[in-house]
Amino acid sequence: MLSRIAESMFWIGRYVERAEDTARILDVQTQLLMEDSAGEEEVTCRNLLSIMGVPAPADTPVDTALMLEMLAYDSTSPASVAAVLGAARESARRARETLSVAMWEALNTTYRGVASGQFRMLRGHNTYRWVRDRAALINGAADATMTRDEGWQFMVLGRSIERADMTSRLVATAALAGGIGAPWTSTLHACGGYEAFLRTYKGLETERGAAEFLLLDRLFPRSVVFALNRAEQCLDNLEASGSRAGISNDAQRLLGRTRAELEYRSLSDVLADLPAEMERLQRTCALATEAVTRRFFAGAETKDWSGVRI
Amino acid sequence: MTAMFEDYQGSDGPAFDEMFDGPSLRAPYERLRASLHDVTVPELAGRLESLQTSYLDQGVTFDIGGEERAFPLDILPRVIEMETWSTIEHGVQQRVRTLERFLEDVYDAGQVFLDGVVPRSVVATSSHFHRASAGIRPANGVRVHVSGIDLIRDNAGEFRVLEDNVRVPSGVSYVMTNRRAIASALPEPFAEHRIRPVASYPQRLLAALRAAAPAGVADPTVAVLTPGVYNGAYFEHALLARTMGVELVEGRDLECRRGRLMMRTTNGLEPVHVIYRRVDDEFLDPVHFRGDSLLGCPGLIDAARAGQVTIANAVGNGVADDKLVYTYLPDLIRYYLSEEPILNNVDTWRVGDADAREEVMDRLDELVLKPVDGSGGKGIVIGPRADKKELDELRTKVLEDPRAWIAQPVVQLSTVPTFVDGRLGPRHVDLRPFAVNDGNRVWVLPGGLTRVALAEGELIVNSSRGGGSKDTWVLAGTGSGSRPHHVEQDHLAPPQSTGPAMDDLTSTVEQQQQQQQQRTTPGDEEVATC
Questions:
Q1: Which residue, A264, A230, A234, is CA-closest to A249?
Q2: Backbone φ and ψ of B148, nearest 5°
Q3: Is residue A52 within 8 Å of residue A176, measured between CB atoms?
Q4: B164: three-class secondary structure by DSSP
Q5: CB contact under 8 A, B248 and A97
Q6: pLDDT of the residue at B465
Q7: HSE-up of B100 (CA within 13 Å, CB side)?
Q8: What is the pTM of this model?
Q9: Number of cross-chain residue pairs from A and B with Cβ atoms under 8 Å apart
Q10: Whether A104 and B59 lie within 8 Å, measured CB to CB
Q11: Which residue in chain B is spatially nearest to A115 when comparing CA positions?
């Protein structure tokens, strides 16, 4: 498939996942802020912006409203849900001829909800639910109507890398919230995994258990390890050559090593400095993205050395 | 009479009214009106609104100054009878065959000049004549793979050719999407008419493009070349690529290596054999044309000359749809085909000819002046609507470069009932039928794009000038429209029910759950044990 289209598919996967996960993170945080009467609003908001990689304004106070503006509604703020949904649609428009009608319409009507101002009218929990519903619709339409070709693999690859990245941010926000409220419970709720967690751990709710579940569970689809595994699978499917020894794909090597480190180190080790650990994970995701870009999206350039395939 | 058509009397000007013949209805519209008998105006307005929303949701849009808008579609179709259509079809085919012969001649021997049918200067001075194209021989001889011949219906109801488009005519995607939209918005009349389908266009186009592939390529790769998402017709480019199942490429996806056209894929470079380009000549190859173009691919023309890739439509076709060449078309039809034109031109003065110029200058205020290489209604001056200052400016411009202008009488385009601002009114329309040439046959898509000027009295219908469109129904069979017979089928057995008997199971579960509920009422001692 065309390199440019492959890149669009990859980013559709990433953007849709990012919109959904940002909404999930905001859902937890706004709820915690509401429950927290001690008035740590400024600190919490700044921390959250920093975890999401958005520079907070230095000279103005940051309250919940401003934070929501930057992370949800303002389409000129590149990390906001509104901007990310716009970017997903723009990528889809560029790959329009490869998408199924159902998937395109799901993406396009979602974008129209943002562009028409309907999204901004939503408040609080409704906002997050709308974003989750839309993401489910887009992913569902894709699941049901797209062939499992390269385009599909790139989209799921993008989604999985983004999910690993964003789950690590969710875990970091929970770790950051420290004493206030019940951050791990809310985080599990935000992931839609609270019931699954209770069933898995037979109702024994501990911070350690929750962290383990979100990071290492091999069966829960939003866990870091699950997402990394899925990304590795996609890369495997995309590498048609099937080399017999070693891994020739940089992205695969990066993701595989990080996953193995998470799985084989003791949980206490991983939990010892969770925020730093999560940052490392996010860096891996960024490096893996660069490697995927070099390997697949640069197209002809990578083939310069091996000559032209005719 | 229905509520909807109650007040509608048709056009009262000199224009041909396609629905009414005086007080009585013309045949193709009788059935339409009868089938909409029960549809009220508010209901029609509601259907129109949901139609527009659905166009936005589907992304059936075009860009005006960077803003994305739903492509305007009027809810009432235009109906054309089979006999009338047959004339159009043959006329268009004749025209395309002539244009093909003319282009072949222009870029080869130039016999038409030697025989004195058209002065050589007409072509030599055309800005669309590209020497780069001379000597490029299309694999199957076709240069006009796709054409859109613009027609209007004059005061007498006769279809006449307004202009030929053999470069990159657009609009066919709207023919297909309009049909689907109207079929769902107006199911009643749709069910009662036999309408010739338009959905096969992409397959016809793909077949023609594959047939044009360089010799010796058994399974050619076809791609559609678009300028990119910011092009006004991007929707169309994407739709054609999608419905043909081929790649939609941009200039940056392409590269010429060793005289072959390649596209960048995740597996490296792959060859392209036929490129259906929707990029203008000037931007196609920076080596030969505009050196600053980022929309094309350097080396493309040379690859075509080497016979490694077919460019559709061919480069340099613009000389054939130049408005000055248009004036020679009736002669060209007689010259190349030894036939009389089936469709007439609109009467036209060549301002470059001294005699004509004198007359045109005297009558500037009653004629339409058109630049010969303009498109999309750009630069057109309608004499009766222009004030003195505009006419003076026009006079100066025309005298500076008379070759660049033609003049035509103001033709009142025919009118069709159109739903605007909650009521029906007569609006002017034209028609662009699309023809696909696969080398063996020129196929004309039954229908084409009817463009409608939505403002009352307006004569310019281009969508870039606020025009809308109509679904165009070409009736199969006579206008009376008998429906196909119902074919008796063997009755099929109903789908077999498999799986567990859900009803019983459900009721058992239900009972148990109800019992459970009773037992778990507060104070019940059994609670702890279950």
A1: A234
A2: -130, 110
A3: no
A4: strand
A5: yes
A6: 66
A7: 26
A8: 0.86
A9: 81
A10: yes
A11: B68
